[in-house]
Model the fold of this input.
Amino acid sequence: MAIALAILSAAIARALIDDTDTPASPSLWQILMHALFIHDLADVPALSAGVWYVAIDLQLYALFALSLWMSQRLAAMASIDSGYMTTAACLILTVGSLFWVNRNPALDEWAPYFFGSYGLGIMAYWASRTPSKSAWLAGMVALLIAALWVDWRSRIAIAGATAMVLATAPAFSWSPGKHLKSIAGRLGKMSYSLFLAHYPVGLLLGAVVAWLWPRNPVMNGLGMVLAWLLSLAAASAMYALLEQKKVRA
Done:
């Protein structure tokens, strides 16, 4: 659905304005590569800003699932606790990414490049649900500091800080007001839909504003605000029609 919206928005934008940043009309091959989530690997231009994330997320999920399966099989063969093997597999992939793979930008089309951030998120989940929280947090901090000392990367620093917040958040008892909690909860649930919907909405509205008021800073500013509001509305509708319905099913 997000791809269809992006293609439609780009077609309307091309009819309104001539801008090199507006995606060209897609070919059948380009659509096929997007359907298979391998457009980056095939060196095909993306049809939407969020498609690369979906493709990488699918790779990461498959890689982690494969590592879990292999670690459990090895644990059964060696007659040891599968939990230790699972932890070891995650650590190996995370360390390998942070210290080697993620330092090579040419590999940013493959899951191991991003597994450093992904693995820190997995560790944050484990740390928040174990009695040995202090040991987990200390290990995460040491790993993050060492990786950044070897090669500073702002994205890894942000991912690490986010992981630490997620790992320690359950320990805090602060609770927002009822209405704020409801709004934050709703925005959190539909955040993925917002990630997919904001690009086609922004592209279409940006083209309309550029067509009608190309050099009016006030209208361009209002257009940005309207694009944000319409993106929220589109994401809410997409979440209700697709994600929420799937969860209920």
